[in-house]
Amino acid sequence: xxxxxxGVAYGDAVTIGDRxxxxxxxxxxxxxCALFAGSSGDHNPIHxxxxxxxxxxxxxxxxxxxxxxxxxxxxxxxxAPQAALRGFGVRFQDTTQIGDAVTxxxxxxxxxxxxxxxxxxxxxxxxxxxGSTKTAGxxxxxxx
Length: 144
What we know:
The protein is an alpha+beta fold.
């Protein structure tokens, strides 16, 4: 198995227990939230307006759930070509606050064959520096 800090390379040698190279991201900023709102079309005020977020009982604006899913998508496509992705789903578990630095990780939990194509199931998670899981799920990736 590859060292946890570097992760396993994409390819046929992938086995259960292997970890993808982690993706450490900069702390979430208001700018990132505003840019994601513009690109996604999700202009919910809790993501871009501090007053609206506070009126909703939040300490400040929060990151979009789909932004954390996009971060996990980036983890996957940094590792394997987008065309190899066969499935990708997540559960939103906690809000991402301004200033949270998230690291995305993945671990191969299953290897199987469907219609002659070798695939792996990968457990994925976006976790902040305090250890709080923001988003978790799994992906199915075809191997070369």
